[in-house]
Specification:
Elements (H helix, E strand, L loop, with lengths): L1 H9 L4 H5 L6 E6 L5 E5 L5 E2 L4 H11 L7 E3 L20 E3 H9 L4 H9 L4 H15 L18 E2 L1 H11 L3 H7 L3 E6 L2 E6 L11 E10 L3 E10 L2 E10 L2 H16 L5 H18 L7
Antiparallel strand pairs: 1-2, 1-11, 3-6, 4-5, 7-8, 9-10, 10-11
Helix pairs in contact: 3-6, 3-7, 4-5, 9-10
Length: about 290
């Protein structure tokens, strides 16, 4: 009986995953273009996806071909009453839709994402129908998205489905550009406010990132979708339910080293993870869902 249990557990891991230390609950790394699985761990387990949801929100909004210069007024209904997450986007602010999309994707602002769904042609009900249609069109058989921010634990998917979603999102120039911006300055109520990418690997030394989105809620843990280039290889990475930001970062570095082979950079990895651990401690005082 014990042998059978062990066999079942091992069947959810690739041989490579056993050799690479991975702290995230679910992991999938796929070579772009060929679809070859490079690393896999629990890739078909359906779990909450937090703000990875916002990639779907962005695709559905852009598919509607809205006026990106049109102003959106942030409404009190956009305020997070589920997790009470913080936001630097005040109620009453009028912001161009393109900047609202920037806030939703780059700095993972929940009010911004909620306002995009609220102002979708036909309103939130039409937005949800469009999301379900997009899920079906992309062949995401294990994905459920009930709202645009990812705050709800009912927004669920698998690493396998999320690789498909990342591949689809990468076909949108706006999404690629926004999610790989390190920072941006946006005018809000006559004041210039600087916002930063929630993924500190974007723009970091040694990283060539083509698409990025982080996620965090208590139920989902620390999540990451990222397309990147390492040692001439292009790959898509999905990490779900890491218990800490440092664990998520360590997984990303270990995966990059694995893809790069013996020429990996352990010294850079150690220095970067140490820096991000310090940043995580500082951010604890201002924790919010991303």
């Amino acid at each position: 009986m014990l042998k059978k249990i062990v066999a079942v557990l091992l069947s959810s891991f690739t041989a490579a995953a056993l050799a690479v230390p991975l702290g995230s609950q679910s992991v999938l790394v796929v070579e772009d273009g060929t679809g070859k699985v490079l690393l896999e761990k629990n890739s078909n387990v359906q779990v909450p996806i937090a703000s990875l949801t916002k990639l779907m929100t962005a695709m559905v909004v852009l598919d509607s071909k809205p006026d990106m210069d049109a102003p959106i007024s942030i409404d009190k209904t956009d305020v997070d009453m589920l997790k009470h997450s913080a936001s630097r986007v005040p109620v009453g602010a009028k912001i161009a839709r393109r900047d609202v999309l920037q806030l939703a994707l780059m700095s993972s602002d929940n009010r911004a994402a909620a306002s995009l769904a609220r102002t979708y042609p036909g309103g939130p009900a039409a937005f949800k129908l469009a999301v379900n249609a997009k899920i079906k069109a992309l062949g995401l058989t294990q994905t459920v998205i009930e709202e645009p921010t990812g705050l709800s634990p009912n927004n669920r998917s698998t690493a396998t489905d999320l690789v498909k979603m990342a591949t689809a999102a990468s076909a949108y120039p706006d999404i690629r550009r926004i999610t790989t911006d390190t920072k941006d300055v946006i005018t809000i109520k006559g004041r210039q406010v600087e916002y930063h990418n929630t993924n500190r690997l974007v723009g970091a030394k040694g990283w060539d990132v083509g698409l990025s989105k982080t996620g965090y809620t208590e139920e989902a843990g620390r999540c990451l979708i990222m397309r990147f280039k390492s040692a001439g290889k292009h790959a898509t990475l999905v990490l779900l339910n890491a218990k800490a930001n440092s664990a998520r970062l360590m997984d990303a570095f270990n995966i990059r080293r694995f893809i790069a082979g013996p020429a990996g950079e352990p010294k850079v990895m150690k220095a970067s993870v140490t820096r991000h651990k310090k940043a995580a401690k500082s951010a604890k005082r201002h924790r919010r869902a991303t």
